[in-house]
Amino acid sequence: IWGIYYHFYIDNHALELLQAQSKKLRKLATSIEAWHRAGYGRLLRFCDNETFVSVREIWKSYCLSDLSPSGKDLYNTRFEAGIQKALAAKVAFSGKGHVITGLRSAGPTSLQAAQDLPGLHQYFWDHGVTGEAVGKKNPNPMCAP
């Protein structure tokens, strides 16, 4: 689940898990009324139909298995372009210097982490994951532009 939330690229298992859950949610979300009657609807409420429809479309966008082969190719191309655009914005905003915002995450060990963080930050932008990539790299639909 970590990779689904944090990584630009995920393995086949994580992608299948994300797609299965989003299909399950869409199946329960036939209408805002049906959603509110269902189990998840008791905990996750929508104030209006417009928001409900928007969220349902987001869940639909996670289902890459519904795309044709040419649709997947186009999706992958757009995903890569989005990553490159984000990287260019990062460089334009912060330059090529060290990014130290991760020090807050290290808490009391921030001084010790200071020497490792620049390399870890660069690794993430080079590979799209926070650790060693496992399995086939699939664009993570939750990170799609």
Structure described in brief:
This protein is mostly helical and 145 residues long.
Structural topology:
Layout: H1 2-6, E1 9-10, H2 12-28, H3 32-37, H4 49-61, H5 69-94, H6 103-106, H7 110-113, H8 117-127, E2 138-139
Antiparallel strand pairs: 1-2
Describe this structure in words.
It is a single chain. With 145 residues, the chain is mainly α. The chain contains eight helices and two strands. The chain has helices at residues 2-6, 12-28, 32-37, 49-61, 69-94, 103-106, 110-113, 117-127, and strands at residues 9-10, 138-139. The longest helix has 26 residues, at 69-94. The two termini are 20 Å apart. The relative contact order is 0.19.
